[in-house]
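Field reference: sequence -> structure
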Amino acid sequence: MTDLRVHFATRRGMVHAVDGVTLDIHEGETLGLVGETGSGKSVTAKSLLRLVPTPPGVYAGGEVSFRPRNSGEAVDLLRIPDQQLRGIRGNRIAMIFQDPAKALNPALSVKQQLAEVFAEHRSSELFRDAKIVAGPPGTRPLLRRAAHRHSTFFERRLLDLPPFRAMEKRLERELDERIASALSATRIPNPAKVMNSYPHELSGGMKQRVMIAQALACDPDLLIADEPTTALDVTIQARILDLIQDLQEQHHAAVLYISHDLSLVKRISDRVSVMYAGKLVETATTQQLFDDPLHPYTRALLAAVPTAEQARGELAAIEGTVPELVDPEPSCRFHSRCPHAGPICAAREPQLLTRKQQHRAACFLYDDPQDLGCPVDLMPQSQVSETQ
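Structure field:
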């Protein structure tokens, strides 16, 4: 992802929800994307699959280059035709949404929803394994629509005829085996019962496992997990995280893990990127970010996390509010809340530059801290030692 810009048209102007974000994710790697609510994390993730509704959304610039695992050719997901994108979405790139209760269709059983994934992206394998190699003209499209549950009344009557009925039964048995296998992989007990259940009959943790099974059904190259444990209690959260990590190792998939919970991100991620007000402000390995955060916003986020050693009293909070994102002026968007801010921060936009090995931050403190005019005792410790 290079210089991605996603805006939303409103009566007051264009909201710059994602403004020049550059990210890279490697095979088998977990990248954590953190930031407070409204920072642009979910819009960034949905842009990978072109799921931002247009209008009101506008893809204002940038590119999203994706190279499938077994292909040497990269494609720009923002510019390829819709039909080609449908072959990637849910197949090579899959997404676990924040609230499974809203992501799952309440009118369809678990079996019907997973069957649609296999029928859309694995129909050739289904026909091969179900030993459906030939038939009258139009047999495969007819059976494919049946697997999708999109058959017309006439097609249903046609499928009742003996030659078609036998093929449909074999196809349904193959689908049942694949669905049960996908559910078993997520450690769902009694998958045969769950696959015939409807979402409202399942617990929150079970619905999330169904979502994970659906996302991993086609062995994707990239899995996007958008706050997948938000609505779950702590014990279920731990199980879901362990499950995602185990399945990632089995499938060798890259994972983009989105969260505002720093403790979860620290546990699961190899690298971490921090977003604030539509901008990427810092990116580093997980150990670097938590041991030596560079950006003032990252430092403030970590300081706000309560610890067992912390004395009783008020929790640390970041003063001020998130800036207005309607047609923003060029500046550091954190400057109104930053203890290190100087005149340059309100006049210019800092660039995300390499400050240490594998560690980038967008802050003027690491260009020339003396230009900020802030007191030395307010500077990060690493900068104090450099200026003395």
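Note: The longest helix spans residues 162-185.
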